[in-house]
Amino acid sequence: MSHHDEDRRAFLVGTVVGAGALAGSALLSDAAAQTTERHETAKPSVDHSNMAHGGHGAFLNDDDSLTIAAFAERLMPSRPDKPGARDAGVLNYIDLALSGAYADQQDVYRRGLAALDGYCRKTFKEPFRRLSAAQQDEVVTALEQGKASEFTWPTQQAFFNTLRTHTMEGMFADPVYGGNKNFAGWKLLDFPGAQPLFSPADMQSGKAFTREPMIGLQTQARRT
Predict the structure, then answer these.
(1) How far apart are CA 150 and CA 9, in angstroms?
(2) Is there a contact between 84 and 71 (Cβ–Cβ < 8 Å)?
(3) At what angle do helices 106-124 and 156-172 cross, to 10 degrees?
(4) Residue 216 CB contacts under 8 Å (≥ 6 apart), including other chains
(5) Is a pLDDT exceeding 60 seen at residue 42?
(6) Contact between residue 85 and residue 16 where contact means Cβ atoms under 8 Å apart
(7) Which of 1, 142, 187, 205 could lock onto 147 through a cystine, CB 3.0 to 4.6 A?
């Protein structure tokens, strides 16, 4: 992992912690919360674990799946001892959200992804998914700074902010929504999940909560 990757990871994780975004999975909108039961009980018509390697998702096609998986990984890159966006199943989270709670943002993704590939082909002669990591970083930076062409609606910065927000949700929201696979994001932050009870000593301690395994909403619902 490059120094640039490490700086990006530290910034994004710090943003999540600083905002207190994990409490009650507050990264998700009310609309997403209303679809919890659907995501828990509905069996996907496809194997989402294979999306980034070919095979359609709930909403995304093959090429768009590869693009989003690559983009999210550049935002939250993995390293040998820490999971990234691919490890946490961020692509699966975004795909499920776009087929349900975030269906109103489907056109943002359609047009944004088309503009992204248009810019990449103009600049590097290849779509985003086929660029090197260094080239992808250049593109991500250009979008963030408003220096990429080919975008009308959504604007490049609006598209970047949408993907960044959804990547963070897929990393750190409760796994019941399709991301944060194996509690990858929570383990990065020593967040214990939806524990049924915290003692006064737990609340006052500054150490990571380790008495019980991490618990998500789905596990907690089965217990109660």
Answers:
(1) 28
(2) no
(3) 110
(4) 174, 175, 176, 180, 183, 193, 194
(5) no
(6) no
(7) 142
d(CA 189, CA 172): 9
The residue to which tokens 């089965």 are assigned: 222
Instruction: Indicate the pTM of the whole model.
Output: 0.74
Spatial separation of the C-alpha atoms in residues 143 and 149, rounded to whole Å: 9
Instruction: For residues 207 and 123, give the distance between their C-alpha atoms in angstroms, rounded to a whole number.
Output: 48
**Buried/exposed code over 104-140 (b: 16+ C-beta within 10 A; e: otherwise):** ebeebbeebbebbbebbeebbeebbbbbeeeebbbbb
Instruction: Classify residue 75 as left (phi > 0), alpha (psi -120 to 50) or beta.
Output: alpha
| Domains in the chain: boundaries | 3-188, 192-224
Rounded CA gap, 169 and 151, in Å? Answer: 25
CA distance 177 to 134: 31
